[in-house]
Amino acid sequence: MSPSAPPGRTSPVTATLAENRLGVPAVLFFVLSAATPFTVVAGVITTGFATTGLTGIPFAFLLVGLLLGLFSVGYVSMARHVANAGAFYSYIAQGIGRPAGVGAAWVALLAYNALQVGLYGAIGAATQPLLYQWFGITPYWWVIALVAWAVTATLGVRRIDLNGHVLAVLLLAEVAVIMVYNVGSLAHPADGRYSYEALDPGNLLGPGVGAILILAVLGSVGFEAAVVFSEESRDPRRTVRTATYLSVAVIAVLYALSGWAMTVAAGSDRIVEVARVQGTEVVFNQAGAYLGNTLVEIGHVLFATSLVAAMIAFHNTTARYMFALGRERVLPAGFGRADRVSGAPRTASLWQSAVGLTVIVAYAVGDGDPLIHLFYWAGTSGGLGVLFLIAATSVAVVAFFGRYPHGESVWRRLIAPTVATLALTVVVVLAVGNVAALLGVSDAHPIAWAVPTGYLAAAVGGTAWGLILKRTRPDVYATIGLGARSVAASTLYTPGHVSAGREAAR
Amino acid sequence: MMRLADDFWRLSHHDVSGKPRLNGRAAGLGLAAALLAELMWAGKIDVRDGTLWVVDKRPPADVLEHTVLEQLLAEPQHTTVRIWLDFLAKDAVEQVAQRLWRAGHLRKETSWRLLRPAGVRWVPVDWNAAHWPTARLSIHLRDRTPMKPADAFLASLAAATGFDEDLLEDAPAAGREYLRYLTATAAPPLRELLVRTEAAVGESVLSYRS
């Protein structure tokens, strides 16, 4: 036993370090604020109905919620034993192997970039009704997108994250308004009868099931973030675990309910047609019919703020990914430099902004459809990438605990992760087979094979780069997956030191 | 007596206005590392494998060093370098500023906004003295001339906290290589302190929230 502070006096060190400790509500709010519900309900679910022509999306949210809950059992357990717990590639590097970790990092860069950039395609559709109503103007979508881009780029470099309290208020408002909309829709079923088709497990057997599962994964992106706080939560064993389970459950139930309410109000046989005509306006038109214009206007405002909050959240996530990889020297070291004054990951943030600007300009010049071909295609492609990462992480959890049980129970280190891995493998196979259905194109369309091929190329290219590093830069190779801590491991321990990560983590 | 933290404070603040040139978290961690390094130089503590312990309990002459040593002695249950860096980082900017003030190197300046005091800033009394560490290290890094261990540590600490660019304006590429050499050849406990600081600064970028 180590000696402790004199009795009757709180230890100043413990007290000071505890000031920043987070409880379940703080972590939960952090995760759900980045989940930005209105973006999913008004943006993803409606365009999902329109593009896939499938009505089983609400059921897919419930199923994916269960699956992610099962996955989280091992995922959260492993978080306490790995460095850089915020990133899937770290799990894969430390569970499967460092070359696979670099492959996963490249897949992650592609996926999170797609998620972030795709959001620029929806901001036009979200704000045009308001701008017309308030000012009588209808700007081009790309004008609005460029304004949103400028805001995101500036905040990213100056390191002004949206204040946590502002995000919490926005989140509560979004959930409240969505629930009011749901009640309104459910109180007015089409033709006076309730259809449960959207929640029918039989949807699993229908065609295109892989597509709706990817959509549900896309809607759930963000649940993985709670583990970032594994080291700064009040009770490391329980806080993050509880917050992760709760966020997965809230996301699954809220979106399943909202999607189902849409099909009830429109009629499950007509929702696809309605969504194709009305786009992101489906929920607002339904609300307008029963609840009045004020609530519709509030909803429109929240949809816009939700999209901007999501842009900023994903911008910062992607920039931090690049920063961590720069610190590891897996990307050029310049990516690991922070802004001197603001402490923002400057180089990474500027790159992310450059990618966003390029894509907006390319779509504006090429006259691409911002909602379907940018927001929906990039978003769902990003969702597919995150699904690959989750599945690979699940394998990594099984492999990691196979080598180091770390005193975790059999359920947490073996049974739950194994079942989750098997189920996720099935989902991945279904998803890859249904990319064309997901994107709403024919099987022969170039985009239908370009998306999976792109991820394959990233995974293979990254793994190859990892193997090259092993031969040419053993010092860099030794610290792959350790994030900011890689510096301690690479400088203080000889390359190849088995437990470099855990030593550095002390 | 080695006043490393004083020089790091001067490096990380503007020589005329006293405004910070480095974000608060990184500056705090850098000053925390400098204070621990002062205790190492004085033979009071040692560091290895992420762990820190006191080797000489007799109080140092300097008041601030004495305070830090007292804190280390009062809580022997906390042994990792990382915890002490985090703890000391919280108040280090203010603590070191007060030491400089007691020695007559800084003065307090109250800024006013609409007839209300808006805050107190520490301003260097003599900007030549305040600029000296920056000038000294820049010249050494530019000419790649041998440095005293204390200066080599300070330059490496600037790199670890992310504002070495300021010191490398004249010759970035060659200077950066020299900095890497300085860090790699520092005495093992100092090198350990440097990389723990760099890791902590990196993690503060990754886990930032408002």
Could you explain how this protein is built, in words?
Chain B: It comes from Plantactinospora mayteni. The complex is a heterodimer of chains A (506) and B (210). With 506 residues, chain A is an all-alpha fold. Chain A has one domain: Amino acid/polyamine transporter I (Up-down Bundle). Helices cover 73% and strands 0% of the residues of chain A. Chain A has 21 helices and no strands. The two termini of chain A are 18 Å apart. Chain B has 210 residues and is mainly α. Chain B contains 9 helices and 4 strands, in the order ααββαααββαααα. Chain B has helices at 4-11, 24-41, 63-74, 81-89, 92-102, 127-143, 149-161, 172-185, 188-206, and strands at 45-48, 51-54, 106-113, 116-124. In chain B, the strands form 2 sheets. Chain B has a two-stranded antiparallel ribbon. In chain B, strands 3-4 form a two-stranded antiparallel sheet. The longest helix of chain B has 19 residues, at 188-206. The model of chain B has no long low-confidence stretch (mean pLDDT 91). Chains A and B meet through helix 1, helix 13 and helix 20 of A and helix 4 and helix 9 of B.
N-to-C order of helices and strands of chain A: HHHHHHHHHHHHHHHHHHHHH
- One letter per element, helices H and strands E, the order of chain B comes to HHEEHHHEEHHHH
Arrangement of strands in the largest sheet of chain B? 1-2
List segments of chain A where confidence is low: pLDDT < 50 over at least 5 consecutive residues. Answer: 1-8, 493-506
Unreliable residue stretches of chain B: none
> In total, how many beta strands of chain B?
4
Content-based structural category of chain B: mainly alpha
Beta-strand percentage range of chain B: 5-15%
Indicate the CATH architecture of chain B.
Orthogonal Bundle
Given helix and strand content, the structural type of chain A is mainly alpha
Distance between the termini of chain B: 39 Å
Organism (chain B): Plantactinospora mayteni
InterPro entries (chain B): GPP34-like, GPP34-like_sf
Keywords (chain B): Golgi apparatus, Lipid-binding, Membrane
Main location (chain B): Golgi
